[in-house]
Design brief:
Cofactor: Mg(2+)
GO cellular component, one term: cytosol
Number of strands: 9
Family: Belongs to the phosphohexose mutase family.
Structural class: alpha/beta
Oligomer: single chain
Strand order of the largest sheet: 5-4-6-7
Shape: globular
Largest sheet: 4 strands, mixed
GO molecular function: metal ion binding; phosphoglucomutase activity
Keywords: Isomerase, Magnesium, Metal-binding, Phosphoprotein
């Protein structure tokens, strides 16, 4: 993922080279755990908590998972991230052309995106854990956006999770709304209410 992040974020979007870190591909991930969450991306959380940066994101090794942080390390849960993108999907040029066909989430993911679907009169599918179930809906032309609570987000532009796409989608939303990550999330909660979920080992409460 590091090579793609450098190319897109620095070369294409013009961000400084020091905007991306840990981007050299290594067999052992530099001794770090590759999953993007508050525990394994603690260095990013610590840096964002200083309040110097407005937006932060972490990816896993192959870039299919993503974590979004706002200023002062404001954490966006994967379920809220999916719901916010669903609400603002039409502001992204790709969906202006293709239209929105529907949303989907895995069973353990909170029902936040369901609320958006109901408000927008869109179909929202709940599927078992496993990305192949999203792929089936994409093949059937029933799905534009999907995600899971394990930090995976995707759309029908590719039949797989795409963490970098999710981050670019978030940047599009923030530019369109001219707001911060925290403002965007809190506005979403005010509109739709807030969903809570907790993972206990292999069990979920949604």
């Amino acid at each position: 993922m590091g090579s793609y992040a450098k190319k897109v974020i620095c070369e294409e979007l013009g961000a400084p080279q020091n905007s991306v870190v840990n981007c050299t591909p290594l067999e052992d991930f530099g001794g770090k755990h590759p999953d993007p969450n508050l525990t394994y991306a603690a260095d990013l959380v610590t840096e964002m908590a200083k309040g110097h940066y407005d937006f932060g994101a972490a990816f896993d090794g192959d870039g299919d998972r993503n974590m979004i942080l706002g200023k002062s390390a404001f954490f966006v849960t994967p379920s809220d991230s999916l719901a916010v993108l669903a609400h603002y999907l039409e502001c992204i040029p790709y969906f202006k052309e293709t239209g929105v066909k529907g949303y989907a989430r895995s069973m353990p993911t909170s029902g936040a995106v369901d609320r958006v679907a109901k408000a927008k009169n869109q179909t929202c599918f709940e599927v078992p854990t496993g990305w192949k179930f999203f792929g089936n809906l994409m093949d059937a032309g029933r799905l534009s956006l999907c995600g899971e609570e394990s930090f995976g987000t995707g759309s029908d532009h590719i039949r797989e999770k795409d963490g970098l796409w999710a981050v670019l989608a978030w940047l599009s939303v923030l530019a369109n709304q001219n707001c911060s990550v925290e403002e965007c999330i809190k506005k979403h909660w005010q509109t739709y209410g807030r969903n809570f979920y907790t993972r206990f080992g292999k069990f979920f409460i949604v």
